[in-house]
Amino acid sequence: MANGWKTPKQIQEDYHLADKTWATWRKKCEASPYRDAIVRVSTRSTFIIEPLWQKFLIWQSKNFEEKHLDPHLRDLKVLKEN
Predict the structure, then answer these.
(1) C-alpha distance from residue 27 to each of 49, 76, 82 (Å)
(2) What is the model's pTM?
(3) Which residues contact 4 (CB under 8 A, 6 or more apart)?
(4) What CA–CA distance (Å, rounded) separates 48 from 37?
(5) Neighbour order of strands in the sheet with 5-6
(6) Tens-of-pLDDT digits for all 82 residues of the chain?
(7) What are phi and psi of 34, to 5 degrees?
(8) Sign of dihedral through CA atoms 40, 45, 46, 50?
(9) Which of 12, 14, 54, 71 has a 20 to 30 Å separation from 24 between CA atoms?
């Protein structure tokens, strides 16, 4: 689709997402700072702005890493940043 916009089915196919995974990630995206990646025109027409979707995935990845990082390593990371 033009301008980096895709349908949810295209995103699912391109990123190899099962229906349940897509639904979970979509909800997380809609609750994130990257909610503009999902454009709902109507109840049956939704489009994804892929460049923003990719930014959401990077943001989600960083959040996942932070939550699952060993607490001792988390402390070291904070020390390195300061």
Answers:
(1) 15, 32, 34
(2) 0.75
(3) 49, 50, 51
(4) 6
(5) 5-6, 46-49, 38-40
(6) 568 899 999 999 999 999 999 999 999 999 999 999 999 999 889 999 999 999 999 999 888 777 776 666 655 555 455 5
(7) -100, 25
(8) negative
(9) 71
Q: Which amino acid is at 67?
A: K
**39-64 burial code (b ≥16 CB/10 A, e <16):** eeeeeeeebbbbebbebbeeeeeeee
Residue 66 has which token pair? Answer: 């932070």
For the record, the structure tokens of 81 come out as: 């940043």
